[in-house]
Structures are given as structure tokens and as C-alpha cells.
Write a structure and sequence with these properties.
With 697 residues, the chain is mainly β. 5% of the residues lie in helices and 56% in strands.
């Protein structure tokens, strides 16, 4: 503060204008800062980065008692992660409508869970959320300079617990309706003066409330910390999981209204017992070297393996698909600290991934459509190919400390991506079922993405920030090489990567008994990759026009009294085609399907001072109505669903937790679509009760 000058107390003015007591005078407690790592892979105060980052703390994760990551992400503004058909699968809507596309980067402890070239919308199933999670961070909008393709709408980072040098064990046992069981066991301790180890494992089993939606998941996580000396430390992490999910699909309007427990599958499909099986393994080693007091070096080599085998129950002829991806990568970063508090980051990301894909017809079936009937013979191969993907991405970022209050940020990232297709099927324009088989080929994409930002601290408790950031989304190998016949032939080598620009302004207030974050954003996407139809009514992917996403987000928590707190997360947004014509139909000005204008969450928390062992949370989730198709011909009803969560400390080492999902047993669909003139509904779960015991020693 300058001598002789008095700064206004903005937090006092804010709470006074709301008609609330000034929390600084009611509760004089020390400010608890929120630390985040996603922006730079280093610990930072969330108030010092020019990005909007939603955070779910370990305390909230414990209260949520989640069996799926959607249970712990509802309380972040603008964030929706939907559990699909009760399985471990999900789709995502963060600053965008719900979608299955690669607009998101999924991380586990700062390392990507999958390759951008082979993006899978279920990518968070490979995280350690069900085994060990100390915090969830969601960086909204374009990612920082450290992140490349896919970090367009959000970067989601699941942060697992760290090894400790004191013995600590945790056992979690949960049981619920539909024979649901979830167990977690972890133990950490020092194994020498300079080394510690964490072992964590989990098992989840659930028979599902709908027919043919049972699932089970197993995971093992090992983390080793080695403090070599004052200048070197090595963190080694190995995780492996296996998941099996019975598959269901959407329901017709009649089935949804009469019996939402149905699977939506025909007898012929159920006879082959469609299951999604997925194996995952990752080994990473993070070496941090403090070269000097100013220069810090970080190297993270990693190996990753995943499979994804399933029956495509959403297709009428239900083909069976299998895929395997092996990856080797390196994340290298250096951070140089200047005398004036400024900081320069520079680094390079490298990855090579080899993938094998196959798809065949599991049984003979005849499908009738508008243009006639088609018979799909058992054993016919739709896909048999290998794809090699390589990536090289250098980057640089400078954080300039202009003053104690003002930090300026500028960065740039270059991405070179290369694909090589080896198709094991004979080249043809039409395989007899409207699919095109390509000859072996190579494709490459290059992009240069600048990032600019600032943060300004108004006082010790609050600040503003802004940023202008460009990002890109690669076409996946599937988009490039799994083409339809007809007009899609023109797309061979013709699909370009999307370019997006995020403009954002935000305000943050953090206090010992309350916080407020406010963000206004706009995301412009040029050359958007969309699903189009040709003159024969075949679908294909193409770059088409411009899409715009705009919105405002607010997150706040306030201590109403020593016993009561309230929390709110709300977003108002619009997702629209700015310029898009498909097969002579002009969609310009239309809103995108599955994109509600309003959604949010509100919680009331009770922690009585006369019974401090008890915690109770009543949560309301709201998802507004939305268009069921891009033609904006029909709207779907939204929903408001309540959940009740409790935690009671039975002894210093043992606590009892309960959860009631859909407290008022409301009938609702969490997703509704219109395709080929037919309504498709995905029913939400009814009232569901579970209870858990957690023991620590």
C-alpha cells in the first residue's frame, strides 16, 4: 500500500450491498488459500493465475461419497459430466453443450490419460477417481501454454494423494441399492529416511437400476517418492485398472414413459450380451531437479496402454469394435525465476502412439430404413487398421511481475502432429454398406497458439483477471479415416483441425468465511468439425463454418452462521452456429443441441456447533431445457434433482456416511435427443440410498 493512501475495502462493500453481515467482522479467522497445479504443473494460488479453475477439495470429495465422477463435479459452474446409462462411461459439457467430441483434455496428476489423436469421451474412466483423489481441478476454456490439442473447452485434472512419511491407512466400505458395493483401501508410510510409498486399491460393483447395466471396476495405484538430496526428487507412479460394463441404450418415448428400467436393446442384441471392456495401465516418472535457486527442471517420461472393446448399441446393426493404444511420451519443462518476481517457462512435449482398430458384424441382421432394407452378414469386417501418431510441441511462457498487484502473462505453443494409416482392408469407395476404405496414407497438422493474460490484485482478498487464448482441436484418427461413401470421398485428407479463441474476464473474492468467483467468457470456433449429411443422406465429418459459445459463471459460498453455510454454482450460456449451411439447410443462428441456457447447483450445509461430529448437505442440481436437435425443432424438458448427504464421526478414527440420490424420487431424463425423426430418452436414476464406513488408522 502506498504511504498516506487508503484503499477501499471492496469485500466490505460487496457484502454490504448484498445485505449480508461483513464476514471480516463476524468471523475473524485466517484466510485459507486454494492451491492449484493444473495451470503450470506447479503449486500456485488460484488467485494468481489468469484462468478460471473450478476446484473440488478432498473434504468435499469425502462428503460426496461418489461412485462416479459426476457426483463430485456438479458443484462447479458450467460443468456437467454425465454418467451414461449407469455405467462407468460419461460424456461432458463444460462451457459447451453435452457432447462426445475431443474438446476436453483429461489428466491424471498432470499427465494426459489418452492421446489427442484417439480421444475417447469416456477418458475419465481411466483416472483414479474411485481409488485415490485428493482434489479435482477443472481449468475452463482454452488450456494454458502447457497444453495442446483438446484443451479447448476445459482441462480436467484428477489429483491423487501423495505418499507420506508417517504411517496412515484408510479403509472405505460402501453398500447401496441394486447390490452396489464400493471399497477403497490405501496405506502410506516411509520406507527409509528419504523414500515413501503409497499403495491404493479399489473395487466397485453395481447391478444397475436399469436392465443390463451392471458394472464392475478394479484398480491398483502405486506411488513412490524419493528425495535424493536437496536438489533432486523423483516421483514414480503406476496405475492399472480393468472395467466391465453391461451396455444399454436410449429408450423410445413409449418405453421411457411406461418402463424406464428397460435396456432399450432388442432380443438379438441381448443374446450376445453386449459389454464394454476396458483395460488401462500407465507408468510415469517425474524427476524434479533444482539446478539453482532460480532454475527448476522437470522431466516426466511416461508409458500408457489402454483397450476399449464394445458393441455399438447406438447403431441399428450393432457392430462389435475393438481397439488397443500404446503410447510413449515425455513432458519436459524448465522454470526460471527472475529477481523481480517474474518467471519464464519453456518446455517441450513429445508423444508417439500406436493404435490398432477393428470392427465386425457379430450376427446377421436386416435393417429397414427410408431407402429400403439392408442385410448385414455375420463376420463382415467394417474396419481393420493401424494408425501411428506422433507429436512434437515446444512452448514458452513469460509471467512478468509489473508490480506487487499486477502480473502480465504471454505464451506461445507450437504443435506438430503426424498420422500414418496402415489399412489392412482393400481400398474401395464403397464396401457395400456405405463405408469407404482408404489406401495407406500420411497426414500432418501444424498449429501455433498464442496466449495472453493478466491478474490484478485489488487488495489482499480479491482480484480481477483476463485472458485471450487460442487453442486447437485435432481431427481424430476415426474422423480422418473412417469415412462414408458418396460425397465423403472429397474429405480424404481434407479435414482440418479446428481453431478456437477464448476471451475471458473474471473477478475473484476469497475470504476466511466466504468466496465469490465470477467469469464472463466467449469461445469462437472456426472450421468447426461437424456431422453433416450428403445428398444420399449419408453422414460424414467436415469443417463447416463458425460456432460461438458465450456465457457467464458464478460460484460462491457464504457462512450464514456458525452452523450453516450456503453454496451456489450457476451458469447462463448460449451455444450457437454463427455460420453453417448443411446440404442446403441453413443452421446459422440456431443453437446447438443438448446445450441448456441455464444450469447450476445449490447446497445448504449444516455443521452444528453443539454436535460437531455431524455434517449434513442438501444439494439441488438444475439442468435447464434445451434443443433436442440442431434444427431447433423440439425442446426437451430440463430437471431439478435433490440429493442428501450426511457424515457422522462415530469415533476419532471411524465415520459413518450416508447418501440419498434423487431425494424426492423424481422421474426425469438426463439427456434427450431427436434423430431420424425419433425421440430418444436416457432416463435418470430413481431415489437411491447408500451408506458407508470409513476407518483411518
Amino acid at each position: 500500500m502506498e504511504s498516506g493512501r487508503i484503499r477501499p475495502c471492496w469485500s466490505h462493500l460487496f457484502f454490504t450491498c448484498l445485505g449480508l453481515p461483513n464476514i471480516s467482522t463476524v468471523y475473524a479467522e485466517e484466510l485459507m488459500p486454494v492451491m492449484i497445479v493444473t495451470a503450470s504443473r506447479d503449486d500456485e494460488l488460484n488467485t494468481e493465475v489468469p484462468v478460471s479453475i473450478g476446484v473440488v477439495s478432498q473434504q468435499q470429495l469425502s462428503m460426496d461419497q461418489g461412485a462416479h465422477i459426476q457426483d463430485s463435479t456438479r458443484q462447479m459452474a458450467g460443468v456437467t459430466i454425465n454418467q451414461i446409462s449407469g455405467s462407468s462411461s460419461h460424456n461432458t459439457g463444460i462451457r459447451m453443450p453435452l457432447n462426445y467430441d475431443g474438446y476436453y483434455l483429461f489428466l491424471q496428476d498432470n499427465v494426459p490419460l489418452q492421446s489427442a489423436a484417439f480421444f475417447n469421451h469416456n477418458g475419465l474412466r481411466w483416472s483414479s477417481f474411485n481409488t485415490s483423489a485428493s482434489q479435482i481441478e477443472v481449468l475452463k476454456g482454452a488450456g494454458s501454454t502447457l497444453y495442446g490439442s483438446g484443451a479447448v473447452a476445459a482441462t480436467v485434472n484428477i489429483i491423487s494423494e501423495e505418499p507420506g512419511f508417517r504411517p496412515e491407512g484408510k479403509l472405505y466400505l460402501q453398500a447401496g441399492e441394486n447390490d452396489a458395493v464400493q471399497t477403497r483401501l490405501s496405506y502410506t508410510d516411509a520406507i527409509s529416511d528419504d523414500q515413501s510409498l503409497l499403495i491404493a486399491t479399489s473395487y466397485l460393483q453395481d447391478n444397475g437400476w436399469r436392465d443390463h447395466t451392471a458394472r464392475d471396476r478394479k484398480e491398483l495405484l502405486l506411488k513412490h517418492l524419493w528425495l535424493l538430496d536437496d536438489r533432486n526428487e523423483i516421483k514414480t507412479q503406476f496405475q492399472t485398472s480393468r472395467s466391465n460394463d453391461e451396455m444399454a441404450t436410449s429408450l423410445s418415448a413409449d418405453d421411457y414413459r411406461t418402463d424406464p428400467t428397460l435396456s432399450g436393446l432388442g432380443d438379438q442384441v441381448l443374446a450376445i450380451d453386449p459389454i464394454r471392456e476396458s483395460d488401462f495401465a500407465r507408468l510415469s516418472v517425474e524427476w524434479t531437479h533444482f539446478y539453482s535457486d532460480r532454475l527448476e527442471l522437470s522431466l516426466i517420461p511416461y508409458w500408457r496402454y489402454n483397450t476399449n472393446d464394445y458393441v455399438a448399441t447406438w447403431n441399428s446393426y450393432t457392430p462389435q469394435a475393438e481397439s488397443t493404444v500404446h503410447s510413449l511420451g515425455l513432458l519436459a519443462k524448465a522454470t526460471y525465476s527472475h529477481d523481480n518476481g517474474s518467471e519464464t517457462l519453456f518446455g517441450i512435449d513429445l508423444e508417439r502412439s500406436d493404435a490398432d482398430f477393428s470392427s465386425l458384424q457379430p450376427f446377421t441382421v436386416t435393417i429397414s430404413g427410408w431407402s429400403g432394407s439392408t442385410t448385414y452378414p455375420e463376420g463382415f469386417s467394417y474396419q481393420d487398421q493401424s494408425v501411428r501418431y506422433s507429436n512434437l510441441s515446444p512452448y514458452m511462457q513469460h509471467n512478468y511481475r509489473y508490480s506487487d498487484q499486477l502480473m502480465l502473462q504471454a505464451g506461445i505453443r507450437y504443435d506438430h502432429n503426424r498420422y500414418r494409416l496402415d489399412n489392412h482392408l482393400v481400398e474401395t469407395d464403397d464396401d457395400g454398406f456405405g463405408n469407404r476404405q482408404l489406401a495407406d496414407r500420411t497426414d500432418s497438422f501444424n498449429s501455433l497458439n498464442p496466449k495472453l493474460g493478466f491478474t490484478y490484485q485489488l487488495d489482499q482478498q480479491q482480484g480481477i483477471y483476463g485472458r485471450l487464448a487460442q487453442a486447437n482441436r485435432l481431427p481424430t484418427a476415426s474422423t480422418l479415416y473412417n469415412l462414408k461413401s458418396g460425397d465423403s470421398g472429397s474429405l480424404v485428407g481434407g479435414v482440418e483441425e479446428e481453431t478456437s479463441t477464448t476471451l475471458e474476464l473474471g473477478y475473484r473474492l476469497q475470504h476466511s468465511r466466504g468466496y465469490l468467483t465470477l467469469a464472463v467468457y466467449r469461445i469462437d470456433i472456426d472450421d468447426a468439425i461437424v456431422l453433416a449429411r450428403d445428398g444420399n443422406d449419408d453422414t460424414y465429418r467436415t469443417n463447416a463454418g463458425r460456432v460461438q459459445h458465450t456465457g457467464i459463471e458464478i460460484e460462491t459460498r457464504y457462512k450464514l452462521s456458525p452452523d450453516w453455510s450456503a453454496q451456489l454454482a450457476f451458469s447462463h450460456s448460449r451455444h450457437a452456429f454463427d455460420d453453417y449451411i448443411n446440404n442446403t439447410v441453413d443452421y446459422s443462428g440456431n443453437e446447438l443441441m443438448l446445450g441448456p441456457n441455464n444450469k447450476g447447483s445449490a447446497s445448504l450445509l449444516w455443521h452444528p456447533t453443539d454436535n460437531p461430529k455431524l455434517n449434513l448437505e442438501l444439494q439441488l442440481d438444475y439442468f435447464g431445457n434445451y434443443w433436442m436437435d440442431d434444427a431447433n425443432s423440439r425442446r426437451a424438458d430440463g430437471y431439478t434433482v435433490a440429493h442428501l448427504k450426511t457424515r457422522y464421526q462415530l469415533t476419532p478414527d471411524l465415520q459413518l456416511l450416508t447418501r440419498i440420490e434423487n431425494l424426492f424420487d423424481r422421474d426425469y431424463a438426463y439427456q434427450s435427443e431427436l434423430s431420424w425423426g425419433r425421440e430418444m430418452f436416457y432416463p435418470g436414476a430413481p431415489l437411491t440410498v447408500s451408506a458407508a464406513l470409513e476407518y483411518r488408522w
